[in-house]
């Protein structure tokens, strides 16, 4: 509906332009919003106010002119002017009902399909030397939810798990692996099963033994020159580390597979070329023996120039160098229209610098967008970054285990007579969903406090609330299995039916917002409101005991669309639904 009104306004602007009233370039600035107060209609626009200068008319006069030129539409019941010059649109209830009827049969549930784009999404991207910890949660699940939404709308998504699989720390890890191998394969694989300890033990050896440290440094050099033995050790290490990641993805319901891994090492051979190209364009400077790029717009707090370091004095390359190569690949080989980076906001400056440099160097096609869809920190109840009691990093698997245990207790207390297998399955879904939903429902740009109690509550905007709401709607159909809806027609009479209908019709707008801005919390907020609108409707409007057969079918159809929308919405968040809980 919103895009329909936008279309109408665009056509109107075109005709006003032909009449010489407004200049050409206003279409992109049309903004249509839902009204908060229904006495102002369903949608409003401030377009008339925006045009006053260009048209040299009073806003209310332009508003009238727009209304006079608006193409007729069967979806719009009434249009009027309010306040200083807002234009309010009242949607025709029959049109709304028809739209919902169509959504019920539509695989996109009525969502408008945008022009298809190729979107590269860089997410999860852990450093492989460590096991996945809570710091990797946000990128993995927020990124995955946006990926699912993009694909649902028909975009071509290329997942890029830009894992940190290259760099000096690998020398240390390989040296340690070599030592363990010497003690037998069993020893090595046992130790590798806990990467966190493996890393720590390697670090201890590195610090305590000069010979070990020398060997580690030697292995880095050999690895970088492509030495076969080193490569083999490195591949083995990577395989173990990646299989840990895959276990976590599967458990979390994150859609990344081994095929999506395209890590830092993949760009290794291109780094010399990156330097050469920057040099050829006169962008490189030398600073303390290192090759750097200074960009005028980046300065330190003290006003000193702030360079991007491209190549260290010892010849080593940096994180930024790899990102430059990666951007070029994403633009020229993958042909992305958009590249999204789900990475901690603490890397904001890094991305500003490399994005701007990639543009200056012509590494990306001008029409491709580079978007750092960053996120804040997940904090503990004390407001500081989430840690174990002893101050260590919390492994993601441990966090999920605890969520599972707590969910099991909760589900058991609500269903004392349920069999163990069913309890376990429900607890698995509730546990994982709660962790994911608590994170996804927050605006990604802000920090948030991780609280098991809150996320497992049945009240408020939580996973248990929504999962339960879904089981209630689904439950209605269990009781109505034999009823044939094919002859039904949605009619919106009761106030609460209209409210629910209006909510259902917003799915498209919300989904498009999630995809444009990379903000799944918009979907969470929407589903929560939808569940609320359904419960008000269900309280006020008997469904199976409706007054007439036609009314019963109409209400069942509304319930069915609600169930479908909740399920689809949760699925786009990467959250499984339950038929009972
Ligand atoms: N591995 C990096 C880290 O753990 C994140 C990589 C993000 N992606 C990128 N293209 N820089 O901080």
TrEMBL record:
SUPFAM superfamilies: Anticodon-binding domain of a subclass of class I aminoacyl-tRNA synthetases, Arginyl-tRNA synthetase (ArgRS), N-terminal 'additional' domain, Nucleotidylyl transferase. It catalyses: tRNA(Arg) + L-arginine + ATP = L-arginyl-tRNA(Arg) + AMP + diphosphate. Its main location: cytoplasm. Gene3D superfamilies: Arginyl tRNA synthetase N-terminal domain (3.30.1360.70), HUPs (3.40.50.620), Isoleucyl-tRNA Synthetase, Domain 1 (1.10.730.10). Its EC number is 6.1.1.19. Keywords: Aminoacyl-tRNA synthetase, ATP-binding, Cytoplasm, Ligase, Nucleotide-binding, Protein biosynthesis. It holds the Pfam family Arg_tRNA_synt_N. PROSITE patterns: AA_TRNA_LIGASE_I. GO terms for molecular function: arginine-tRNA ligase activity; ATP binding. One of its GO terms (biological process) is arginyl-tRNA aminoacylation. A motif ('HIGH' region) lies at residues 126-136. Residues 466-581 form the DALR anticodon binding domain. Residues 3-91 form the Arginyl tRNA synthetase N-terminal domain. It is found in: Cytoplasm. GO terms for cellular component: cytoplasm. Coiled coil: none annotated. It comes from the Bacteria. InterPro entries: aa-tRNA-synth_I_CS (IPR001412), Arg-tRNA-ligase (IPR001278), Arg-tRNA-synth_N (IPR005148), Arg-tRNA-synth_N_sf (IPR036695), ArgRS_core (IPR035684), DALR_anticod-bd (IPR008909), Rossmann-like_a/b/a_fold (IPR014729), tRNAsynth_Ia_anticodon-bd (IPR009080). SMART domains: Arg_tRNA_synt_N (SM01016), DALR_1 (SM00836). The keyword Ligase applies. It is an enzyme of class 6 (ligase). Belongs to the class-I aminoacyl-tRNA synthetase family. Monomer. NCBIfam families: argS. This is Arginine--tRNA ligase. The lineage of its organism: Bacteria, Pseudomonadati, Pseudomonadota, Gammaproteobacteria, Alteromonadales. The gene is argS.
């Amino acid at each position: 509906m919103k895009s329909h009104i936008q279309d109408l306004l665009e056509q109107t602007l075109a005709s006003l332009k032909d009449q010489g009233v407004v200049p050409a370039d206003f279409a992109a600035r049309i903004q249509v919003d839902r009204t908060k107060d229904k006495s102002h209609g369903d949608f409003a626009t401030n377009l008339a106010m925006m045009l006053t200068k260009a048209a040299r008319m009073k806003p209310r006069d332009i508003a009238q002119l727009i209304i006079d030129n608006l193409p007729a539409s069967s979806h719009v019941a009434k249009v009027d002017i309010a306040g200083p010059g807002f234009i309010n649109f009242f949607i025709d209830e029959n049109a709304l009902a028809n739209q919902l009827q169509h959504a019920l049969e539509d695989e996109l549930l009525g969502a408008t399909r945008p022009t298809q784009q190729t979107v590269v999404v860089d997410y999860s991207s852990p450093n492989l030397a460590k096991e996945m910890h809570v710091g990797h949660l946000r990128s993995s699940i927020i990124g995955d939810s946006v990926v699912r939404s993009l694909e649902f709308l028909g975009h071509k998504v290329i997942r890029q798990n830009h894992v940190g699989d290259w760099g000096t720390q690998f020398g240390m890890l390989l040296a340690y692996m070599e030592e363990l191998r010497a003690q037998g394969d069993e020893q090595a694989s046992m130790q590798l099963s806990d990467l966190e300890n493996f890393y720590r033990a390697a670090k201890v050896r590195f610090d305590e033994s000069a010979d070990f440290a020398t060997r580690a440094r030697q292995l880095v050099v050999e690895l970088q020159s492509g030495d076969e033995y080193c490569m083999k050790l490195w591949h083995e290490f990577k395989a173990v580390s990646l299989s840990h990641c895959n276990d976590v993805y599967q458990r979390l319901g994150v859609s990344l597979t081994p095929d999506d891994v395209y890590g830092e090492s993949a760009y290794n051979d291109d780094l010399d070329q990156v330097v050469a190209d920057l040099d050829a364009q006169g962008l490189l400077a030398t600073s303390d023996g290192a090759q750097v790029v200074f960009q005028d717009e980046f300065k330190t707090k003290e006003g000193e120039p702030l360079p991007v370091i491209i190549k260290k004095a010892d010849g080593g390359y940096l994180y930024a160098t790899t990102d430059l190569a990666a951007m070029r690949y994403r633009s020229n080989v993958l042909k992305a229209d958009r590249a999204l980076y789900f990475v901690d906001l603490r890397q904001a400056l890094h991305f500003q610098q490399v994005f701007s440099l990639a543009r200056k160097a012509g590494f990306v096609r001008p029409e491709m967008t580079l978007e750092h869809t960053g996120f804040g920190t997940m904090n503990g109840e004390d407001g500081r970054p989430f840690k174990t009691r002893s101050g260590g990093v919390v492994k993601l698997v441990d966090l999920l285990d605890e969520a599972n245990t707590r969910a099991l207790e909760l589900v058991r207390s609500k269903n004392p007579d349920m069999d163990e297998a069913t309890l376990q399955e429900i607890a698995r879904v509730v546990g994982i969903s709660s962790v994911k939903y608590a994170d996804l429902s927050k605006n990604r740009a802000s920090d948030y406090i991780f609280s098991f109690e809150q996320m497992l509550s049945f009240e408020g905007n939580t996973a248990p609330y929504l999962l339960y709401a879904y089981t209630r709607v689904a439950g209605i159909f269990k009781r109505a299995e034999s009823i044939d809806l094919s002859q039904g027609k949605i009619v919106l009479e009761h106030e609460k039916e209209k409210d629910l209908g209006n909510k259902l019709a917003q799915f498209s707008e919300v989904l498009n917002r999630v995809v444009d801005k990379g903000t799944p919390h918009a979907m969470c907020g929407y589903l929560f409101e939808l569940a609320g609108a359904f419960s008000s409707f269900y309280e006020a409007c008997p469904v199976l005991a409706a007054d007439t057969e036609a009314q019963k079918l109409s209400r069942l159809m509304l319930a069915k669309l609600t169930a479908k929308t909740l399920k689809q919405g949760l699925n786009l968040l990467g959250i499984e639904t339950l038929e009972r809980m």
